[in-house]
Amino acid sequence: MSKAIVVGSINMDIVAFVKKHPKIGETIFGNDVKYFPGGKGSNQAVSCKRIGCETAMIGRLGDDSNGQQMLEFLRNEGVNVSGVVKLEQTVTGTAFITVSESSDNSIIVISGANVLWGDEFLKDIDVNEDDIVLAQFEVPDAVIEASFEHAKKYGALTILNPAPVRQISDEILKRTDVMVVNEHELEELSGMPVSAKDDETVFNAAEVLAHKGINSVVVTLGERGVRLFWDGQRKRINSRSVTAVDTTGAGDTFIGGLTAGLLKGGTLKQAAELGNIAASISVTREGAASSIPTIDEVNEIFGNNDGN
Ligand code: RIB
Questions:
Q1: Reported confidence tier of residue 138, pLDDT bands at 50, 70, 90
Q2: Which of 32, 231, 252, 306 is catalytic?
Q3: Phi-psi category of 26—alpha, beta or left, where left has phi over 0 and alpha has psi -120 to 50?
Q4: Which pLDDT belongs to residue 61?
């Protein structure tokens, strides 16, 4: 059976819910603090699994209580964790997140174990040609380069989410089939001005990435939906109108839905529509991984979707 293999970060998210984000130098009182499972890699793995595909996680944890909780969380979700390794005398990745009453967030990540990889992780990536290998930028380039090289050796599809954004090495670029970026990442990587309000700027910047050798560029624009650019084609997918309470992890939820949709044999457009609906549900709930819907919840809406 085909599967998603996520090579990425695992974090514990410590979330402060506030009325407004503090200004620099300002001290404010928050409304609440909560701990949620997070990390872009882990969130995407949970999304793939909840939205219906076999999923394996390749990641690194510390030997602390956060690491133990995250391992149990992923295992209980049904994610294959045989490629998740606990490192001695190391802290688990931690994200400090502020979520405002207008549902937007700011995030500081302390990488901890997420950047401590040896060479031995490739043996845990049991990849076949029908699989999809996913990576984000919360782990070192060398790990992604080796994973994508391994994936391509077996003919698997690769999806890169270059977040938090940094320049992409040629080694990664030439082995990336699908790239998923938000407005800011697209602007940074294309070197072009991008405005979510102006589709032309989005598609023109996506075309710049396509010229660097990426088959399919998927741009997530939050409440403005998703834009697809592939083989010179441009497609717009509108977002659903919902009342958002916390947008943390919405992009990760989308990527899990996209991956699950592709693994089920859907087209890029169909898979992106699935991801779009999953993300629209996730923003109505608090937390990153905890907000990701199940396939039944997605289908309830997807069945009624007019396809935009
Ligand atoms: O994409 C959201 C995630 O970014 C959070 O869960 C946090 O851990 C950071 O990695």
A1: very high
A2: 252
A3: beta
A4: 98
Q: What was the pLDDT predicted at 198?
A: 97
107 found inside a domain = no
- CATH code assigned at 191: 3.40.1190.20
Q: Does residue 282 form part of some domain? A: yes
**Ligand 1, closest atom to CA 97?**
7
| Full domain range(s) for residue 128 | 3-9+38-92+113-302
The amino acid present at 62, given as its one-letter code, is G
**Averaged confidence pLDDT in the chain:** 96
Q: Look at the pTM and tell me if it is higher than 0.70.
A: yes
Q: What is the DSSP letter of 115?
A: G
Q: Which two tokens stand for residue 20?
A: 């407004």
Ligand 1 atom closest to 42 (CA): 6
* Residue 301 reports pLDDT greater than 90: no
Sign of torsion, CA 104 73 118 131? Answer: negative
Whether 185 is covered by a domain: the verdict is yes
Residues with CB under 6 A from ligand 1: 9, 11, 13, 38-40, 43, 95, 107, 109, 138, 248-249, 251-252, 288
